[in-house]
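User: Fold both of these, please.

Assistant: Here is the first one.
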Amino acid sequence: MINDIEEKAKSILENLRHDEKLGKYVDPILPIPQPYRGTGPIKLIVLGQDPTIKNIAKRARIKTVLNLDTNGSARGYLAGVCLGLGVDLKQNAYATNLFKSFFAFPPTGMKEINILKECLDPWLRLLIGELAPFNSMPVITLGEPVLKLLLKEESEHPLREHWGYIVKWQSDQLFEELKYVKPEANWLGRVLFPFPHVQTRQSPFYQVRMNDYVEFVKSSTFSG
């Protein structure tokens, strides 16, 4: 399966490379990072955005999605989440990106074009096919940009809304109910559990809510 996805990803990249409008925004040189797959039965899907980082020299070192083949911050973060869910990152997780190849620049730095929306359709179709063998398995999404692209209805702050954010949470220590994205509300047609990106998780709100949301995911998915 992985080899088939890789070939299709290369084909999409080649098409984008020769696109008159989009070609200059993609990096056709660096190899596409491989998905991460645990050694045992897969119980959890982790979905990132794209592999592009600001440091150009370090991009070439990224061989696996989210650098999960190394002991970096993403691996530590997700290992902790998996531990809370009662699964093992090394055995039970499958991680992939919505956008498989590198962009020439990090998408957040491209002010003249919304490159993610412009490139979305072929990558989304590929992702749906990639996840098909995992039946209706739920997905953890990392970061708000990728979540927004998957939602059928626009929302300004969908990530924190699913984590029960209210304006006065710090003073009142009150929150709205925790939520997940229902299959009919997103383009993947699966249950999505939105998580903050590796860096964003350090914000006070997500630090306070992390354990509660992990427990929410566990009770919604892995309990019975």
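And the second sequence with its predicted structure:
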Amino acid sequence: MLVNQRRRRLIFLALLLLAFAFRLFVGLCSQFRDSDTKQIYLLGLKFYTTHAWPYFGPDVVWGEIQIPGALQALLVGAPFFVLPIPESPYILLNILSFASLCLLAWYCCKRLPEMPSWLVWSWLLTAPWVLDLSTTIYNPSYILPGSIVFFVGALESYQFTTKNVIAPWLANFMMG
């Protein structure tokens, strides 16, 4: 019995690792598909090479107006300090989106025990609309992790939608 549980866990972890590798591969193959992805990557590269705080984000129209805010350039440029290879921003983005999608899959399996867990996990990790934006450095790519954490917390903090899967203090913390 214990050997079967251990074997199932190892198979599950191997499948998760395979899913992460697939998502990373998709993200690396679809890089620089338009001017926005190239510009965002270059903003992060500029932050890494100059070590200057990026006060502005991407352009609204090439060269005319820039969006104020440094978060995106920091999220793209900071991974270079840890691993100075060109793929490091993609690795961080895929770690963030993969972890949040795993949280959502786990939460959906807890809330809906009648659904097969293999279906929930495979659907959430390989859905085309999620693979398209959450694996490539793009403006909306960094919204997914925060939104999943927020909405899981919101579903657990409201009295009429809670299933007591997450502690109330943690749900409120997730929304903050």
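Helices lie at 2-29, 35-50, 71-82, 88-111, 117-126, 128-134, 143-157, 168-175.
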